[in-house]
Amino acid sequence: MITRDDYLPQIKQNNLESMIQVNPAILTSAEAMALDTLKSYLFDRYDTQKIFASSGAERNMHLVQCGVNLVLHLIYQRLPNHRIAPHVEAAYNETINFLERVADGKNGLDLPRRVNPKTGESQQTFRWGSQTKRSLI
Fold first, then answer.
1. What is the pLDDT of residue 59?
2. I want to staple 76 with a disulfide (CB 3.0 to 4.6 A). Which of 17, 20, 84, 124 is the partner?
3. pTM of the model
4. How many alpha carbons lie under 13 Å from residue 9 in its C-beta half-sphere?
5. CA-to-CA distance for 11 and 64, rounded, in angstroms?
6. Looking at residue 113, what DSSP letter applies?
7. Are 94 and 69 in contact (CB under 8 A)?
8. C-alpha angle 131/135/137, rounded to 5°?
9. What's the pLDDT at 132?
10. CA dist., res. 97 & res. 41, Å (int)
11. Residue-level pLDDT, tens digit, the chain, 137 residues
């Protein structure tokens, strides 16, 4: 889902190459971890199989940006003494906060919703809860 060109607005190509030490396996691994993180926040409400199978202009670019932020944070963690640049840390925190709001239903994304395979209708998972009853006596 994430391409090399998606990194260009946030990091220069030569900086990315030096951080992964010209080892594409590092980037591939970080991308897989980031995509799993995205899926874990989206799976309750959205059809993650359709979302992550999309390519090119079909992709939700906000979701791509979130993925890039997660990948860069993972790669920066590899640096000695975990010297994560402040802008990378801020982008990571903003991404996690946004994904938490999406998971809680406070923010929405223009993405395919989960569909109930039996009915073909949009499937929504809600979390219900309450506090235990208190006695007034």
1. 94
2. 84
3. 0.82
4. 9
5. 14
6. B
7. yes
8. 160
9. 73
10. 11
11. 899 999 999 999 999 998 898 889 999 999 999 999 999 999 988 999 999 999 999 999 999 999 999 999 999 998 887 788 899 999 999 999 999 999 998 988 888 888 777 776 666 655 555 667 677 76
Q: Quick one: how far is CA 110 from the chain centroid? A: 14
Hey, what are 51's tokens?
A: 């979302």
Q: How many residues does the chain have?
A: 137
Which tokens hold the place of 16?
A: 């990315």
Closest CA to 67 of 17, 33, 90: 33
The whole-angstrom separation of Cα 56 and Cα 51 is: 12
Query: Which tokens is 84 given?
Result: 């994560």
How many angstroms separate the CA atoms of 91 and 97, rounded?
A: 10
Q: In sequence order, what are the beta bridge partners of 94? A: none
